[in-house]
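Hi Q.,

Before the meeting this afternoon, I wanted you to have the manganese (II) ion prediction in hand. No need to reply - just skim if you have a minute. The sequence and ligand are here:
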Amino acid sequence: MATPLEEWVEKAAQKTKPKQIVWCDGSEAEAERMVETLLAEGRTVRLNERTHPNCILHRSDPSDVARTEQITFICSRRKEDAGPTNNWMAPEEAKQKVGALFDGAMAGRTMYVVPYLMGPVGSPMTRAGVEVTDSPYVVISMRIMARIGKVALDRIDKTNEFVPGLHSMGDLNPSRRYVLHFPEEKLIWSIGSGYGGNALLGKKCFALRIASWMAREQGWMAEHTLILGLEDPSGKVSYMAAAFPSACGKTNMAMMVSALENVGYRVQTLGDDIGWMQVGSDGYLHAINPEAGFFGVAPGTNEQTNPNVMAAIQKNTIFTNVAMTGSREPWWEGMTAETPRDLTDWQGNKVTAGSKGPFAHPNSRFTVPAPQAPRISPKWEDPAGVPISAIIFGGRRARLAPLVYESFNWQHGVFVGASMASETTAAITGAVGVTRRDPMAMLPFCGYHMGDYFQHWLDMGRAIPHPPKIFHVNWFRKGADGKFLWPGFGENVRVLKWIVERVSGKAHAEETPIGFVPAKRALTLDGLNISAENMDQLLRVEAADWQKEAEEVGTYFDKFGDRLPKELRAEQVHLSERLNLVASAKT
Ligand code: GTP
Ligand code: SPV
Ligand code: MN
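Predicted structure with the ligand bound:
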């Protein structure tokens, strides 16, 4: 008798009509066969075997270079359950309309069946998925990003539980591109894209959109967070999860080489994009990284900004849409001060004297196995996860938000997350640099009504006996000259140190209407060449600007109607009142 998995694969094959079906085991030999297929297809090349052993460069279709939010839908039975921040399509309509595109979509092609686990083997938080795809690039990417093959099949055989995901490249025409989620059925359909979060279905589709829905049903959290450990001079490690929007610094922070290593503060890497969190038997919120690799932004990465990333991606790495030097090494803007001669751009064209950059796509990326991170934490695959003592929200705010502030308590921290905003980046198709609200960095990833999601955060706070403290950071504040005020990257450890010291009640802070900011001299700035004036600007809380912000947040909250938790409205009103008090004290 056929298993539920075999039945589902059979149904997918009947619809898409591939010429053959290959069940993937995740082996080295299989990966090698995929690479051979990709080389023959002509959009992939091998990189320099000596400098970059077992590395390839893949060039995606030029119309398919980032996550596409306009064609991403939540197909819940009721429209109101998707909420005002998601695109919605009725499940029957979605199945008809997009089902037609899947009809015969794999004709003449191979269907690969990729069973995978999200989470470490043996963790109670781990879940299984199966992606069928006609893209060998997706298969080798999934092999790095998740645990695929036998480990996953074994689990599915035992439980018969898996999230099915149907993926086809389709014809890559953006007008026939769809990423659909059926949360009640726990089903994913994606067609017309072979790039990143659109196509690696374990990542955003399962581990965030479907998982956020599951998490609310089951009392846990699925969040767009890195996970790191900060080791102090005594050897104690404090774990933190940080939620920043796409291309706002998670990978870099998780893999940071600390500027305070010489005094004993080191950063350990556990995850760079997604955290699944559950209350542990010790009463702390425990986090696992459901992924097994990092899909990181290439541009801006170099030996100064992040030597750990540079070391990690020397081998066994897939580069996508980066440029290539004459000696077949990967290259991108920000890697070296000078553009190398004899460069090939991300579309495979020779760069000539008249060529205009950028030569690597701004959302070009590397896909690298997590264990290659030089400071991977010994606990990164701990089935129990790690206890989180701080949750950090952040984003790109050229103005307004100080370098760091601490919320007054969990409820206020949820307000800080819910009212977050950030300037858009190249990780998403569309305009770059537009400030938009992105609650908890989950705007594109929350699989249900955002108002209910806020309520879930509030409920979780009550369910965690020892809740993490909640902070907000901004590495991207700019001065009047338009330059970043803060050096960022490895220097960010100075902020993490203050955060950990606040958690243990040691660091000094000054109370402001928006929360606690570091008191004068509370941040360790030894060895950093930064002017007192810049530090003042970085930590300044401008009441007039914040009053405007509080009003805008109030208007934003109106969107959620009666699904906005009243606690958050109260927090917004209290913020305005505190700001008014400060303003009237001044005059
Ligand atoms: P996603 O994978 O899209 O979720 O992105 P991410 O949040 O992991 O962002 P990532 O660390 O890849 O950084 C994105 C861009 O921001 C890169 O170009 C980095 O070089 C840059 N960046 C990261 N951290 C800092 C920082 O502290 N300061 C400044 N100025 N730039 C940073
Ligand atoms: C993001 O956009 O947040 C990413 C990249 O992490 S992708 O996987 O393409 O969604
Ligand atoms: Mn991300």
